[in-house]
Design a protein that fits this description.
mainly alpha; about 75% helix
Length: about 200
Amino acid sequence: VSSFGYIAVFGIMTLNSDFIPLFTEATLPFAGFLASQGKLSIPLIIFASVLGDLVGGTVAYYIGYFLEEKIILSGVKKYGKYVLLKESDYFKTTNLLRKYGSPIVFFAKLTPGLKAWTSVAAGICEIKLRKFLIASVCASVIYNSILVLLGFYLGRNWNIIVYYFNKLQFIPFILISIGILLFANHKLKIIKLPKIRV
């Protein structure tokens, strides 16, 4: 992003929408931080990110639309755990899409971890392309803008952040790391945690 600017933002968002995990939640705030330094423009970052989401999401949509459902379901069974996707998630998403349509696309696109899969599921369920694109763009504008502006305002107050970070040391990092590990363990079932009875 530092070297290639908007092209990098577009490329990362496109790949991220096609199950290649490049951490949108880190890329966009960093781009926002660069905007706070005068190196990039917020509207152009948002435009590039939404366009990348749209291109990648459309490719994922057509993958779901043209591939047979049994092939995709077989892929979820074999490789879903590597992208934290379970067979039960597959059926929940497709059932919701078949029942409620494009509004589910909108809300799922606002949820980290579901963005790419939702595009494929929308294709499987044959949601109308126009409705899919409208829901995707609306969600992408909201989600991406929040992340970019977060990075921008954090960048403008960097001295304050550094001061409090030095005071708190690594407490936030530890808590976030524990949360990520627990979520990954819940999906992958690596370690069986004991149930707490009240």
